[in-house]
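Let's practice the habit of predicting before peeking. Look at the sequence and jot down your guess about where helices and strands might fall. Then scroll down.
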Amino acid sequence: GPASGGPTGAPPFVVAVAASPNPAEVQKLVTWSALVSGGEPPYTYAWSGTDGLSGTSATAGKTYATVGTKTGTVTVRDSRGAVRTESLEINVVPKRRIGGIEEIQPE
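Done guessing? Here is the structure:
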């Protein structure tokens, strides 16, 4: 039948990307999250982005070794085959110095 935009139709399939922290310090873990509403679960996720960001879950973690703008992109597919792709840019900044001593995090 015709697609319904009214309240009887399925809710629209919407994807948004969040990242925390943002801005992030270098060598600190950034957690990327896909926020999904609507569509028909289950969903499948595919992450891509700067410096090799990847993942297949609703969240993806990445530690960045360099400062600058980093992009994360997630493609979400629902069980009916609808696809949404969304991206977010974050800023990675130099480490704060604490008491003149730079924190070194072992990899």
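How did you do? The CA atoms of residues 73 and 87 lie 4 Å apart.
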